Every structure is written in structure tokens, then in C-alpha cells.
Hints:
Layout: E1 2-9, E2 18-21, H1 37-47, E3 77-85, E4 97-105, E5 110-114, E6 117-119, H2 121-128, H3 145-151, H4 154-165, H5 168-179
Antiparallel strand pairs: 1-2, 1-3, 3-4, 4-5, 5-6
The structure holds adenosine-5'-triphosphate (ATP) and magnesium ion.
Amino acid sequence: MYxxxxxxxxxxxxxxxxxxxxxxxxxxxxxxxxxxxSNVADAVRWVLGEQRxxxxxxxxxxxxxxxxxxxxxxxSYASVAITLDNSDHKLPVDYEEVTVARKLYRxxxxxxxxxxxxxxxxxxxxxFYDTGIGxxxxxxxxxxxxxxxxxxxxxxxxxxxxxxAGIVKFKRRKSMSVKK
Length: 180
Ligand code: ATP
Ligand code: MG
């Protein structure tokens, strides 16, 4: 499984529709300060269901919508779609390729889609359990996060090992059935 592309439109500094395409191997994103490098990582976090605005470096969720520049009007929505190659079926679905998309309007209306089909945030979370990819996963290591892991509480650190060991879904299922 690997990330094939990230498509953004109206997300943060990306007013126009842009598609970043990746191939197997390492890709570096370089550019001057303030050119939008971190916004690319934010887009991935966001589409994976990030709800904490602080993690997205904003004051409220609508701050991810392109807010305009001197010569460009603000946009009314932000949209991000990532496509993953799933030919090894690490994601528990039959598709060879999985596209996860999220869209947010200024009105607050929002939607998630998996392969073009509307779904809940819960479905997106479940898709990525135990893959290390979800918003709580370790596939995006932000600045200062290593420190947090090293100095974190034992149960927070345990979550990371559970995810890597692939037992998160069983724990979630257990707590769901206990609740019922
Ligand atoms: P650095 O090298 O300093 O880390 P960077 O390339 O990571 O820089 P980002 O933090 O990704 O830069 O981008 C910051 C830019 O994104 C700022 O110019 C900011 O104005 C712009 N930006 C953030 N949110 C929005 C928004 N909602 N609408 C328009 N522009 C935005
Ligand atoms: Mg940055």
C-alpha cells in the first residue's frame, strides 16, 4: 500500500485544484517559507478525519478553507482527496485503489467519501485501524512528536504499540460490545 496522490482544492493556500502524484519510493517537497509545504501534510491529516483545529494550525475548522488573497476572493469550500494503492489489500476492502475524500463548506456542512460514496467519519476511522495511517497513526510524524512519544504517559505510548501490533480494531470491538 502506498500513497498515490493528494488532490486539494480550496484547502488553505491551495485555491486552485492541484493534484500531487507520488510513486513508489521517496518524495521530498521543497519550497520557500510559507509556500505551503506543511499545508500538504495538514491536508492529509484533515482528510483522515482530524477534528482538532489546533493540529491543523487553525482557530476554527473553517480556517482550512482558502481565505483569499489581495487579488483572489475567498472560496466557499475546501476539498481534499487522497488515493492509496491497495493492491496488497492492507486496507480491509476489495478495491485495488482507495480514494478517501473530505469536503467542508463555510456553512459548516461537511462530507466524507470513500471511493465516491458518502460515508461517516467513523467509516474512515475504521478503514485505517491498525495500518498506522489514521489520524492517530504514526504515518505522519510532526515536529515535536518524537519528544511527545518519549516523554508521554505509558498508556499513550501503549496506543502506539497497539496500532503497530494490529490489535486496535479488536479493542474497539470489545469496548463496543461491552457498552451494548
Ligand atoms: P515553512 O517553511 O515556514 O514551514 P511552509 O511551506 O510549511 O513554510 P505552510 O505553513 O504550509 O508553509 O503555509 C503557510 C501559508 O499558508 C501562509 O502563507 C498562510 O497565509 C497560508 N494559508 C494558511 N491557511 C490559509 C487559508 N485558509 N487561506 C489562504 N492561505 C492560507
Ligand atoms: Mg512548514
